[in-house]
């Protein structure tokens, strides 16, 4: 079968591999689409400290059940269109015991610490399979990245009384915007890309700030009467956005960090105390976040085609990643079609 491997920094190859064996409790999926995400891009660029190379990338999955192993729950049916929860959990660490398997100490995410889904077929434990419930294959490939943004909003306990600033309007930031809007919050989107900000406004952001052309703090003060945002969600992973989040949040506000910063960040910690902030990390997503995204997609209001920048074949994966590196601001999602 055909698969995609990131061999080393800057090198992606289409390779031939044997079709996976089907074990007890597993199902075989024929892959329809898999999304390239920011972690895959960073792996390609040599900037992902978590990855083990060489690796088959991909954890944003749309597939079809084509074979069912022994001891699989009866709700998993042949021909069913599905997505997959791509995270593993040990069941024994503190996070798992606290019912937060998304933050398992020993998690291995598909496409990062273990081989992912960019192959014609994959075999996965049936417990990780999520029935598609009438969603299209392209919609299912968007569920996982959106769920990460949904989870961050849940971490912040966003309500309709909140002003929420989202720093970064890529796919995960867009997910956070959608979830916050659906909870009734007043959302401000910030990014350097005007096209991404236009989409954020279409999806319900009340205001937008182009930080390439405007001073973030000055514009935020204008919009909030110098109060700042009740919640700031950082979905970029850069030093400047980490620091901006602390500056932008109101006194007694909440800050949620999703992006992985690539370098140590020197915080002026006096503001942690003076503002009495709740500062949180947000990792991956929980099953309820997947369900919430799928409920949203079923509403039919998501501009799916605008979220998918390009669709390529496995043989075109190297060129697609090269193009993304050259113009990262122009890409929401690249899907690989098998």
What's this, in brief?
The chain is α/β, with parallel strands linked by helices. The chain has 12 helices and 15 strands.
Describe this structure in words.
Keywords: Metal-binding, Oxidoreductase, Zinc. Belongs to the zinc-containing alcohol dehydrogenase family. It holds the Pfam family ADH_zinc_N. Strands 3, 4, 5, 6, 7, 14 and 15 form a seven-stranded mixed β-sheet that branches. The protein has a six-stranded parallel β-sheet with strand order 10-9-8-11-12-13, with helices on both faces. The longest helix is centred in the middle third of the chain and has 13 residues, at 143-155. The chain folds into two domains: 2-142 and 308-337, Medium-chain alcohol dehydrogenases, catalytic domain (Quinone Oxidoreductase, Chain A, domain 1, Alpha-Beta Complex); 150-281, 3-Layer(aba) Sandwich (Rossmann fold). By secondary structure, it is α/β, with parallel strands linked by helices. Strand 8, helix 5 and strand 9 form a beta-alpha-beta unit. The protein contains twelve helices and 15 strands.
């Amino acid at each position: 079968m055909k698969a995609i491997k990131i061999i080393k920094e800057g090198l992606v190859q289409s390779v031939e591999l044997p079709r996976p064996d089907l074990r007890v409790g597993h199902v075989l999926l024929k892959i329809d689409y898999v999304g390239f995400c920011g972690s895959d891009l960073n792996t390609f660029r040599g900037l992902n400290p978590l990855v083990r190379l060489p690796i088959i990338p991909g954890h944003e999955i749309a597939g079809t059940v084509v074979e069912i192993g022994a001891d699989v729950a009866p709700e998993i049916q042949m021909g069913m269109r599905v997505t997959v929860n791509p995270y593993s959990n040990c069941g024994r660490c503190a996070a798992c015991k606290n019912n937060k398997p998304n933050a398992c100490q020993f998690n291995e995410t598909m496409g990062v610490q273990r081989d992912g889904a960019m192959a014609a077929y994959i075999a996965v434990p049936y417990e990780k399979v999520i029935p598609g419930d009438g969603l299209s294959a392209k919609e299912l490939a968007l569920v996982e990245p959106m769920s990460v943004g949904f989870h961050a909003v849940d971490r912040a306990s966003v309500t309709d009384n909140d002003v929420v600033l989202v720093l970064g309007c890529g796919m995960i930031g867009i997910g956070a915007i959608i979830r916050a809007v659906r909870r009734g919050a007043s959302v401000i989107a910030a990014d350097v890309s005007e096209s991404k900000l236009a989409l954020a406004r279409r999806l319900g952001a009340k205001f937008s700030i182009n930080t390439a052309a405007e001073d973030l703090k000055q514009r935020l003060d204008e919009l909030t009467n110098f109060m700042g945002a009740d919640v700031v969600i950082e979905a970029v992973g850069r030093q400047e956005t980490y620091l901006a989040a602390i500056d932008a949040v109101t006194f007694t506000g909440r800050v949620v960090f999703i992006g992985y910063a690539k370098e140590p960040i020197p915080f002026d910690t006096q503001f942690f105390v003076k503002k009495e902030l709740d500062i949180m990390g947000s990792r991956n997503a929980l099953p309820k976040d997947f369900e919430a995204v799928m409920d949203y997609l079923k509403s039919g209001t998501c501009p799916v085609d605008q979220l998918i920048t390009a669709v390529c074949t496995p043989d075109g994966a190297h060129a697609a990643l090269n193009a993304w590196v050259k113009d990262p601001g122009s890409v929401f999602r690249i899907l690989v079609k098998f």
